[in-house]
Amino acid sequence: MSQQLVAEQYKTSDNLDARAQLHARFSRSTIPWHRWIFDHIDPHILAHGRVLALGCGPGGLWQQNRDRVPADARLVLTDFSPGMMASARTQLVDLPCAPLFAVVDAQAIPFVSTHFDAVTAHHMLYHVPDRAKALREIRRVLAPRGTFYASTVGEDHMREMWELVEPFAPGAIASARQVTQGFTLENGAAQLAPLFDEVQVHRYEDSLIVPEAAPLIAYVRSSLTMLAHSALTAESLAAFSEEVERRIATDGPLRITKASGLFIAR
After folding, report:
1. Which residues form the domain of 28?
2. Are 72 and 47 in contact (CB under 8 A)?
3. What span, in angstroms and rounded, lies between the C-alpha atoms of 265 and 170?
4. Is residue 214 assigned to a domain?
5. Tens digits of residue pLDDT in 121-133
């Protein structure tokens, strides 16, 4: 995925918000995604260390765990997109602590070496053009005993949805996979291993059961700028919408695979 497509996709938080809504409404897990992620972050680091969040987007992780953020937490929240940073500032005005906000490129992190006790990078490393350079930068700014938390998706993530899209936008499956294939649950550990002594992967058990067409259609529409080699025309989007509505009316709610998880590297 080119930097131009990434910039267009994440110019504001609108596209990300549309996708988050689908997961928030129809995920089957008893533990919401952001709460599950936060469960894995060392509370001692949050209370006593420095934390750098790369690609934090509109700040959903921190917003949905505001009750667990220590008042004296030392957070630096960053994103490559100025629009995302603007959304994060708005969304996190009631956070117990007072984080620093900054527009930052993960390939050139503007902080001194060994400064942070933890770095987070959630669902964003697959967008970084020079991922090896970004990972070296992350390792550089981590303290010697620091921890890196990186979430991502697996190869089967949202498989059934893209299979529905494919007849109306040939190449959609391959194009969607191309977006995330750079850093997945299947290949992420091999990329982290040269830089860290210990790499663990934790998988988030979840799926979607979608009884309404509109939220799924909004999800697909929000993803269009990411599909470099495939796009839905107005006509094919209308036909796709009709097919989703027909499928739900005939077969009941759509069941969609989710494959998400978290790497913890030390």
Report:
1. 3-158+170-208+257-265
2. yes
3. 38
4. no
5. 999 999 999 999 9
